[in-house]
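QA checklist item 7 of 12: single-chain prediction sanity check.
[x] sequence parsed
[x] length recorded as 201
[x] structure emitted
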Amino acid sequence: MVTTRRQIVPAHIANARTYGKGNRKVGITVHETANRSKGANAAAHGNLQARGGMTSASWHWTVDDKEAVQSYGNEWRCWHAGSGSAGDGDDTIAIEICVNEDGDLAKAYQNATELIRFIWDSDPTVGRQLFQHNHWSGKNCPTILRSGTVISWAAFVAAALTGGTPTPAPGPAPAPGPALLELDGDWGAKTTGRLQQVLGR
């Protein structure tokens, strides 16, 4: 189970960075930070929010390959996906998955699915629906998860719903090697051609 901790944003900052309380919690919206910088992990993003460093966005949780940090309680309507009108993404719990280059992204995805289970288990009023940021605004987010290069969205959702481990995306098929020769004991044109291939001549 992913390690979770609370680093709650002070109320005076929260009031200036959210639509206030009253989140209807219709589900959970999944984002990626898009910050590939080394050290841009959950702790760094938790610190950023706690200090009021984010002036145009807010979200409930940040998760990386080691931990999940909570910045806002579930009751807050954070600025993360919608317009602030009833029924949009701001009535969901927002999770940002870290994509820092010094982290293990596959593990961060696994931790995110475990965090989703933790949220559902600890607050039964949160809807059991998962949304991509893209669902609310059309933005290509979570970008890497949407691309399916590490795991597919379907595998991510399945892991969150069942408590399993996300199945990695299949790697590229190996390049075909040179054709093998039938061993017949004779040295012919095909044997010479194969030898030239091996020697790069």
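[x] summary fact logged: The mean pLDDT is 88.
[ ] second reviewer sign-off
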